[in-house]
Structure formats: structure tokens, C-alpha cells
Amino acid sequence: MKRIITSLFLLVIVYSQANAQIDAYKGKEDLRFQIGANLQKWGTGIVTSLDYGLGQSFSIGAQAGYLLGVKSFAGIDKPGFGDRFDLKARFNANLGNVIGLPSNVDLYPGLNLGLKNFGGHVGGRVFFDKGFGLFTEAQFPIAKYNSDAIGYERLNNQFSFNIGVSFDLGK
Q1: Which domain holds residue 117?
Q2: Would you indicate the residue range of the signal peptide (predicted)?
Q3: pTM summary value
């Protein structure tokens, strides 16, 4: 996990030297790709998301995550692929422009519907160069499909924190 965060930090330093201002969401047909680290109580992994702008303030997308490092539970075998993997459909309200933030900054609350739960997320991203920036996001379940989850069934079904890099594929 330390290697992932260190690598992301180094990428930020290298690319932030240009520090050019770009729009976080200009309008229709903007496409954002994000990749980063996923941190949960019982594991850490990698998360990717793809968001498509439907307008200046709304976007839809998909997110996939896979937990690489998982803490063991007493008396329970290793988690399988299905326990470690999660896929979600997302809807975001991009508020940076609405609340008057600089054009390279975006805040976005949203909802997601995944394989493990129905939940929400709150995130933010800032772009430093044309097509490159950072994001951070907190996710939380609103309605779990299995409210009596035990052991590895809790993975990807709890509060999680994501941090990583964001790319504007339309630039």
C-alpha cells in the first residue's frame, strides 16, 4: 500500500510542475478516468472509475474495484474473487461550477448501485495540467443487500476511502 501511495505522490509532483488551469467539467461529453487506491477496514486495493458528463453539472459512470491485500478473519479461508471484486454504476452531481469554485476544481456527491450494496459517495478532484489531476472520494453503503454479512462478505460493503489520479480523456 505504501508503494501505491508513494507512486501516486511522485506522479503528482512530476505533473504538477506545469500547473496549467483547465476546466474540471466544461459541459457535455466530458470523459474522466480515475485510478487509485481503495482503503477499507479489512483490506486495501485498487479502484478505477469512468465518468461521462451529461451536462455541466451531471455525470454517469461505472466503477470497478479489487482488493489486493485482505486481513484474515479467524477460522475463515482466503477470500475468493467474488469477495474481493466489486462493480458499480454511478451518478454524480458535479458542483464545482455551481458553487463558484475555480474551473480546475470539482466537488461531486453521488449515488452508486453495485454488486454488494446501494450507496453514496462524496468526492473531489483538482486538475493541475491538461488532462491530469488528483481525486479523493469517500464511499458509504446506504442499503446492504446482505445486512447479516459476516467475514469476507463485509468486503466492499462498508465505508471506504479512495485516493488517486484523474485523467480528462477529452483533452
Answers
A1: 2-168
A2: 1-20
A3: 0.77
